[in-house]
Amino acid sequence: MGHTSAHQFRMRKAALLPLVSALLLLACGGSDETLSVTELSEKTHVHGLAVAADDPERLYIASHFGLYVADPGGTARLVSEERHDFMGFTPHPLEPQTLFASGHPHGGGNLGFLVSEDRGVTWTRRASGVRGPVDFHQMDVSPADANVIYGVYQGLLQHSADGGHTWELRGQAPQGLIELAASSRRPERLFAATQNGLLVSHDGGGNWERAHSSTAPSSTVRTVAAGHVYAYIVGVGLVQASEGSLNWRVVGEHWGDDFMLHLAVDPSDPNRMFTVNSQGRVLSSSDGGASWAPF
């Protein structure tokens, strides 16, 4: 199976995977609130990662069965009793206690746009979104303006300018969209990792152009406060550039048939990174993405 077809197959997430994950949890003791990161990745799949801005030893892991926090020793602790399927997850860029999410409740349906103001312990629906309740699989808040949030539901890009209270449609999302990343410099700039390459929009998703010359699938994209953007491109590797120039350099070699799915960069130390690979394993790097090891 070639790089592109393997990528598309895995990214589509076979319909039976949630059921298999649920059975594994029941068989292994799904009520456990503390387990190793390795056990967590074996029991369920991870939808998002983030390092707390005020505590570099706090790694959020948004999963199919709730939000966990992992410590440097590799122990993951369930944060909330609400075992939502957090398909979309992103922290507030200025308020460490505030988190945003979307996805599915444990009993089925859609969550809409959720907010937690106590680091993920309790969640409330802030809005249903357009044609909602929405289930944002791709979602990000702008580090340049925390009131600006983007989300994608049913192939349509939605935009909020008031912190997620109200939403409007911006049009079709890029075809084959995998992940969104809002600019850390301009709230109207938006990056998209897609099955057809890495794209950028300078008008809030109205128009898109290539951000990187490769047309190979881009499986993840992330911006950081320093004005840099990172992306993983199949067959190329982990690349990094200044948002202003988009002159890319490879910081980590490609992984063959494996690839990155989600990327988190420590706000206090850009050399410290975390990712989830295509097998669902959480990995860490202490040298800016040049080398990786199991968390």
What does the model show?
Keywords: Signal. This is Photosystem II stability/assembly factor-like uncharacterized protein. By secondary structure, the protein is mainly beta. The chain has helices spanning 3-11, 17-28, 37-43; strands at 34-36, 46-51, 59-63, 66-70, 75-78, 85-91, 99-104, 113-116, 124-127, 138-142, 145-153, 156-160, 168-172, 177-182, 190-194, 197-201, 209-210, 218-223, 228-233, 237-242, 249-253, 260-266, 269-277, 282-285, 293-294. The chain has a 5-stranded antiparallel β-sheet. Strands 6-7-8-9 form a 4-stranded antiparallel β-sheet, with no helix packed on it.
Mean pLDDT reading: 89
Rg for CA atoms:
17 Å
Measured between the Cα atoms of the first and last residue, the distance is 28 Å
User: How much helix is in the residues?
Assistant: under 10%
Q: What portion of residues belong to β-strands?
A: 35-45%
Helix-strand sequence: HHEHEEEEEEEEEEEEEEEEEEEEEEEE
- The 3D shape can be described as globular
Low-pLDDT residue intervals, each spanning 5 or more residues? 1-31
Strand order of the largest sheet: 1-5-4-3-2
Number of strands: 25
**Which structural category do the helix and sheet elements fall into?**
mainly beta
The biggest beta sheet reads: 5 strands, antiparallel
Q: Given the structure, what is the number of helices? A: 3
What characteristics describe this protein?
295 residues, mainly beta, 5-stranded antiparallel sheet, 4-stranded antiparallel sheet, disordered N terminus, Photosystem II stability/assembly factor-like uncharacterized protein, WD40/YVTN_repeat-like_dom_sf
